[in-house]
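Read as chain and fold; for instance:
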Amino acid sequence: MQQWLWDDPTSDNDYSYRYDCDDFAMDLIRAAEKDGYLIGMYSEEDHVTNFANIGNTVYIIEPQTDEVWLWGYVD
């Protein structure tokens, strides 16, 4: 996943009042679908990120920076 995020150009976009966190997240979802991956969108405290479920593990993805961190486990 990390290599795919580094290769994906979504995080290269410029943040603005017309292109903000939800736009980054939606574009990352579209890019993932195009490449055969399924990721979701998560909103907390007025900020939108993405998430990916890989095996038993759920990761949060910051689409503006490609930072990834562990969110938790499915079971």
User: Anything to note?
Assistant: DSSP finds two helices and four strands in the chain.
